[in-house]
Design brief:
With 354 residues, the chain is an alpha/beta fold. The chain is 13% helix and 25% strand. It is built from three helices and 39 strands. Its EC number is 2.3.1.191.
Amino acid sequence: MEQNWFFPPHEGIRLGDLADRLGAELSDVSAADRAIHAVAPVYRAKPGDVCYMLSRKNRDELETCQASAIICDKAIASIVPHTIPVLLAAKPHTAFALAGALLHENAMRPSYNTSERGIAPGAFVDPTARLEAGVEVEPTAVVGAGAEVGSGTRIAAGAVIGPGVRIGRDCTISAGASILCALVGNNVIIHPGARIGQDGFGYAPGPRGGMIKIVQVGRVIIQDHVEIGANTTIDRGTMDDTVIGEGTKIDNLVQIGHNVRIGRYCGIVSQVGIAGSTRIGDGVMIGGNAGVNGHISIGDGAQIAAMSGVASDVPAGERYGGIPARPMKDFLRDIAEMAMRASERQKKKGGKDE
């Protein structure tokens, strides 16, 4: 890949210092003074790069690897060429994530769209809004009446912060995002085009066969260190609040309905839809394109496989998959039985043709 000017290399971190920062053991201490500038995949890593390996199945990529170091665990360290120093880590994936954050700090949040700092002349900030020192508002962004924004927060071009919204400190509100009827904590990242706090989908049967809109007067509460992906939508509550717990990470193109409560440190992957009034515990992982029924509970630490349909409660710590979602062992057994039956039908069909 040609030089990437969007994310230029770091000025350099000593390999020995990097090992200390990652809590890793450097296999060759004589290489401690090597300068590390960037991360790269194994197959095209060059001097100055650090990469990582999680499995022996990628060993062929080492043939073209010229990295200054490879992060891995002791189980696969022996397959790394002796010319490449190894950073031994108990959790290589985590160590590599930390290395990436050190070497490419500017890639950890959406970047600035203009070179201006402070309140841009082309921004509109209502006179009644309260912005702490150090807030940045880019051109065409709107901050509504009575809104409050904490220091270190950046509101990008075209974003809309509605009346009365509260946003904490050191947040990034990306281009084209809208935040209405919401309270946002500290260190929150909201990616481009996200829609937060619009009214939810609620209707009652009308007297003549149509539908009457149910008023939505709740809020959205987003706690600290949450990240919300591009074009994700989070509806405000009907009368209670929609809540996103501390440290939860939400991918692009996720729909979260009104009154949903999501716990702390959850991971929700793209194209998940969560219907209204669902309760999701702490540490829950939901795979891509899963659908979650309304008014159910998913317990702490549960895992939902991709493309599942969750129709009823999921106990804490369980792994569910399929449509309807059921315990993973049952789902896998059903899949195996269906495959076996299909094979038997094919054999019978082949026998008749003969």
